[in-house]
Design brief:
This protein is globular. A three-stranded mixed beta sheet has the order 2-1-3. Helix content is 75%, strand content 3%. The protein is mainly alpha-helical and 313 residues long. α2 runs antiparallel to α3.
């Protein structure tokens, strides 16, 4: 074996933004704006839910967890991107790469399960209204929320442990903008069969299963809505799940593009765009979707703003 094959890397180089070497500072401000909107928007949603007792319902309980997750997902990737833009370098130490991958996988996979739990909540509310308070009592909601977080943590721990056993033999250039399993396996110089097998099996349980559960839930929801005779009743029932359905489409759609590229693969520029759409844009859109399309959230925000205005007058 040559010296190169025995050398383990100590840092990785992201190539996702390698085509804009002289324009890093121009990208710094847009990404800073996106991160600021993400954190402030989700923090606003979380705070409004805590302040208004009328929002202390299962749907908004899960939404508060979604807001926390979106802040976490964005904070795992964007600050490092901003630092690299500022210092005009695209590197990350090995240990930080493993940590970034662990937390990113944990939060994104928790969000998959949480969106499925939110779909079940909408199913119970629309299809089983007489049993809703029993099906979605506070204890059940707490167990579901706790289970989604544990689900994501355990799966991320498994994949991070397997990835830490990969050897890169001096090759440290990642065709990506953050650390993730597929790009790391591409540059690994040892057998990745176990990693690939674990990834495929986990994708069925962590990605496909929650997605199918959500789809099936909405099939039943749609069937129940169509049985409502009044147009007003149909519109009211659909409005309660429109925001969640929009978030599901955005999240799973971007995840599908990110983890299921065409057989020929993406170009570096396209892969950078898809990665951005997957882990940076959805966390920013979610609070906008829920605040613009949700009367209760808009009403609470209006009350809070009016009360603050009276304090300063």
């Amino acid at each position: 074996m040559g010296v190169r094959n025995q050398t383990q890397v100590v840092e990785f180089v992201f190539l996702g933004f390698s085509g804009i070497l002289n324009s890093h500072l121009y990208f710094f401000l847009p990404f800073l704006a996106i991160y600021s909107v993400t954190v402030l928007g989700n923090l606003m949603i979380f705070t409004l839910i805590q302040l208004d007792s009328s929002l202390h319902t299962p749907m908004y309980y899960f939404l508060s967890h979604l807001s926390c997750l979106d802040i976490c997902i964005s904070s795992v990737t964007v600050p490092k991107i901003l630092v690299n833009f500022l210092y005009q370098q695209q590197t990350i130490p090995y240990n930080q790469c493993m940590a970034q991958m662990f937390f990113l996988m944990s939060f994104t996979e928790t969000e998959c399960a949480l969106l499925a739990a939110m779909a079940y909540d909408r199913y119970a509310a629309i299809c089983k209204p007489l049993y809703y308070s029993h099906l979605m009592n506070p204890k059940v909601c707490a167990i579901l929320a706790f289970a989604t977080w544990v689900w994501g943590l355990l799966n991320a721990a498994l994949h991070t442990t397997l990835s830490s056993k990969l050897r890169f033999c001096g090759v440290n250039q990642i065709h990506h903008i953050f650390c993730d399993i597929p790009p790391l396996m591409k540059i690994s110089c040892n057998d990745t069969y176990i990693n690939q097998l674990a990834t495929h099996i986990a994708s069925l349980f962590v990605g496909v299963a929650p997605f199918l559960f959500t789809i099936v839930s909405y099939v039943f929801i749609l069937y129940s809505i169509l049985k409502i005779h009044s147009t007003t009743g149909k519109r009211k029932a659909f409005s309660t799940c429109a925001s969640h359905l929009t978030v599901v489409i955005v999240y799973f759609g971007s995840a599908l593009l990110n983890y299921n590229p065409p057989s020929a693969g993406y170009s570096l520029e396209t892969e950078t765009l898809v990665s951005t759409m997957y882990c940076i844009i959805p966390p920013m859109l979610n609070p906008l979707i829920y605040s613009l399309r949700n009367k209760e959230v808009k009403g609470t925000l209006k009350k809070v703003l009016e009360s603050q205005r009276k304090v300063y007058i």
